[in-house]
Design goal:
Layout (H helix, E strand, L loop, with lengths): L6 H7 L6 E4 L3 E5 L7 E7 L6 H7 L1 H17 L6 E3 L15 E5 L15
Antiparallel strand pairs: 1-2, 2-3, 3-5, 4-5
The structure holds guanosine-5'-monophosphate (5GP) and zinc ion (ZN).
């Protein structure tokens, strides 16, 4: 399933350029256009689902693949440790309604769940 007015579906289709760092048959990983840390990569399924909960219901294997891909993406940037974050719903800061994981690393990060970063 794709959504014609979805920016991440456009990236999957190649209509909008992205700095792709890793990909598989089912997932795409590219650098966030507005990075919050030295490493800030988004991992998305190629298929359109509005958030991770809907993705997990429809394609549970994809969520496991995202966790494994996060490790690969972090390793490509030389990071051992990283945050893996799914903002879910507008009240939690979700702005793009195509399921995506943030992989964030490389700076000391404030709090255990925030995407806010502070200098190392
Ligand atoms: P959310 O706030 O929905 O969890 O995360 C959406 C993320 O997508 C934001 O961090 C934002 O910077 C990023 N983003 C939005 N549009 C684009 C784009 O066109 N290209 C890239 N690479 N990132 C984008
Ligand atoms: Zn989409």
């Amino acid at each position: 399933m794709t959504s014609t007015d979805c920016i991440f579906c456009s990236i999957v289709a190649g209509g909008i350029p992205a700095d792709v760092v890793w990909q598989s048959d089912t997932l795409l990983a590219f650098r966030d256009i507005n990075p919050l840390a030295q490493t800030h990569v988004l991992i998305i399924p190629r298929s359109h689902h509005r958030d991770v909960v809907e993705l997990a219901a429809a394609e549970p294997q994809r969520v496991a693949e995202i966790a494994a891909a996060a490790r690969e993406v972090a390793t490509l940037d030389g990071r051992d440790d990283f945050k893996l974050l799914f903002n879910t719903g507008p009240g939690a800061g979700q702005t793009v309604f195509h399921a995506h994981a943030h992989v964030i690393a490389g700076e000391r990060l404030r709090g255990s769940s925030s995407t806010e970063s502070v200098p190392a």
